[in-house]
Write a structure and sequence with these properties.
Order of helices and strands: HHEEEHEEHEEEEEEHEEEEEEEEHEEEE
Radius of gyration: 42 Å
Shape: elongated
Number of helices: 6
Largest sheet: 7 strands, mixed
Structural class: alpha+beta
Length: 338
């Protein structure tokens, strides 16, 4: 049960103990000591801040009054790094109490300088110095020169292409790489726009892919060109390889009339890797093994080595068994009229 009288007595004892301590001789000595410590610290701080120091500030920059028909194809910096030198008290005022106003440039003042505008360092420094104390020394501005490239309504739609490689993992292959959207609008000065044929992604390297990959990729790589949209979705589909074997006949090519090539065996096995999606579609008819009459004439060992003349693009690791065959050339009698 809550005892009000005991609680009041408890707090009364605590207040009394604190009062006795504050009025004691040891407490007065401690307070006097702390007073002189703070005074000494203040003198040391004033003396230290009177020295000259160097520091760096960030000053915002802005480009104003850009016409609606103008598209900036490079990013205009949001701020610049400014290195200054002055007494500590002045620098402390910059850090704690003073705010730098944005350094502003009017687009109209540079509209006659072409599509690639460079604002010289002298002009940039002059605008920054106007916000500094007269005692402050400007050491540097980074970047020391501002520039931007713009287009006045010139645009072209370009197909998107991958800059890089997408590689599948073991026993897989990349069946397709698509983009959504598959084309973008490029803005650039006319002389640059006329040279553009494709919109390429930034360099991309993907390895060991075993499942469908969907990710957003950025477009760019060429200064002075702006793409809308600037990033698109890439979809890379993979399929698993499976092995298949078909029997393909060996055919003679360019044999003279009346001569026929006979091979033993007449058909050979062609084994290859194909994706599961096309496993049922590929057949022996899509392979062709031919031996020319010239190959036979050049042959000396009695066996003809075999090689594929045609095969589908989507098969890999093709093997022929046997790799060579025995043969003979059969002479056929021509029909004669009685």
């Amino acid at each position: 049960m809550f005892d009000k009288e005991r609680t009041q007595q408890f707090w009364t004892n605590i207040v009394k103990t604190i009062r006795v301590f504050l009025l004691s001789e040891s407490c007065r000595e401690a307070l006097v000591f702390l007073f002189f410590v703070f005074v000494s610290l203040g003198f040391w701080l004033l003396n230290t801040l009177d020295d000259v120091y160097k520091t760096e500030f960030r000053v915002p920059v802005r480009l104003k009054d850009v016409p609606k028909e103008v598209v900036l194809t490079t990013d205009f910096p949001e701020n610049v790094q400014v290195g200054v030198e002055d007494r500590g008290t002045v620098l402390l005022n910059y850090m704690l109490g003073r705010t730098f106003y944005p350094v502003t440039f009017d687009f109209k003042d540079y509209s006659t300088m072409g599509t690639h505008v460079r604002i010289p360092s002298e002009e940039l420094s002059k605008k920054i110095v106007s916000q500094l104390n007269t005692s402050t020394k400007l050491l540097y501005v980074r970047p020391d020169t501002l520039d931007f490239i713009y287009a006045q309504g010139e645009a072209k739609r370009l197909p998107v292409r991958l800059n890089g490689e997408v590689e599948a993992g073991r026993q897989y292959y990349v069946s397709s790489v698509t983009f959504s959207p598959d084309s973008v609008v490029a803005y650039a000065p006319r002389e640059v726009l006329d040279t553009l044929k494709m919109a390429y992604t930034y360099r991309l390297q993907v390895e060991g892919l075993t499942d469908t990959l969907r990710q957003y990729v950025s477009l760019g790589g060429q200064r002075g060109v702006k793409f809308i949209p600037s990033s698109i979705q890439m979809t890379a589909c993979v399929d698993m390889y499976s092995e298949k074997t078909v029997e393909v006949p060996v055919v003679g090519i360019n044999f003279p009339a009346g001569k026929v090539l006979r091979t033993f065996p007449s058909k050979v096995q062609v084994t290859f890797q194909v994706g599961l999606k096309r496993f049922m579609d590929v057949s022996a008819n899509e392979f062709f093994i031919g031996v020319t009459y010239e190959d036979v004439l050049r042959n000396k060992d009695g066996k003809l080595p075999l090689a594929l003349k045609t095969a589908p693009d989507w098969v890999n690791h093709v093997r022929i068994a046997p790799a060579s065959v025995e043969y003979l050339i059969e002479q056929q009698l021509e029909d004669t009229e009685e």
